[in-house]
């Protein structure tokens, strides 16, 4: 009997109907749900906040929603924080802040669950800093046979290594332990720059302080830069409330909303409006709790593709993208986001084995990314780019195997832990290849 549930992701570009949703409470209940699904020959997809743009979390038969498995388990005196895997990052940030701790680096938003963010390799920016997976110290995984495996660098180390960015393909994360750091503040310096300058001086600029990123506005040479420097909590000096509201709600969200809305009714307006919004972001400096500076509200919905390229390739990739936009008749209302991260050693981390630059392109949620994303994918691909696991891309297992030296190590582990492909879906079958049992291979 098909189920009766309906699901859509944040961007609204992925939907599913006719499956069952289960809300287990506690690791035993997760294991029981997995066993029941396996016994019925059904596939299981855990889901977090549904913020992935790709179909990676799309349920086929049974969706495991961990909204009742989302509590704080423990914070030790040396900052090891253990949470149930369904906890959203914003709650984790608040729990840590209340105890004088913080995560050392975060992405742009905090609506994701800890498990969902880890599973797709979620990252922020910082040449010396890795993504969320690099902060992970231990995890508990419910396997396809319903058993529970605890892993860390010293316990089931091969599984731990791979499951740090596991795509939800190895099992259900039920608890995770992250290394927090003493709470700190960030001094944010934001201002304008040109893409020409930033490309010419890319390495020096992106390594000029702890967490650097910029947004380039297509159809212009303008960029908005953000340089965040770690400082002690005593230096906190936030903007007045009205100014923070003006910048975050009016300029960053409402102005973008207006460009996107205008683009729907009168597409020729997109280019001139993009030029206006590129000028609207003025210079400012503020110092606030790190998690408040790292994270913004994203009220205007969009679709996104992001590629991780070797850091040294970023200026060329951006130059080619700018030339492609200038030579096209595309109308791109969203800026291109550029970030960096340190190399790490998780097999399927987008920064695995190389210092990385991230380049992300966006279109309004209801529009077709068409040739724009396809052109960007080709440019990033020529530089050996690796797509973000939670964002849109067109690669399959054969192409991805060529971008990740340890791809086969990951799929061999997946085949061993989940020989029947219980934790797969059509998207994972495409990007990892189906398990041997589903292809008739042995
Ligand atoms: C507005 C916006 C801003 C974003 N900003 C950033 C950013 O700054 N940096 C960045 O890297 N990414 C960013 N992303 C992408 C986002 O971080 C990832 O897509 C992330 O996976 C979403 O988390 P989620 O909880 O919504 O997971 P979901 O999308 O719900 O799930 C993602 C994957 O995790 C799996 N999963 C969920 N729970 C479990 C579990 N318990 N065990 C095993 N697998 C599980 C799912 O099956 C699925 O495969 C952004 C997305 C949006 C919409």
From TrEMBL:
This is FAD-linked oxidoreductase. Residues 14-183 form the FAD-binding PCMH-type domain. Keywords: Oxidoreductase. The lineage of its organism: Bacteria, Bacillati, Actinomycetota, Actinomycetes, Geodermatophilales. It comes from the Bacteria. One of its GO terms (cellular component) is membrane. SUPFAM superfamilies: FAD-binding/transporter-associated domain-like. It is an enzyme of class 1 (oxidoreductase).
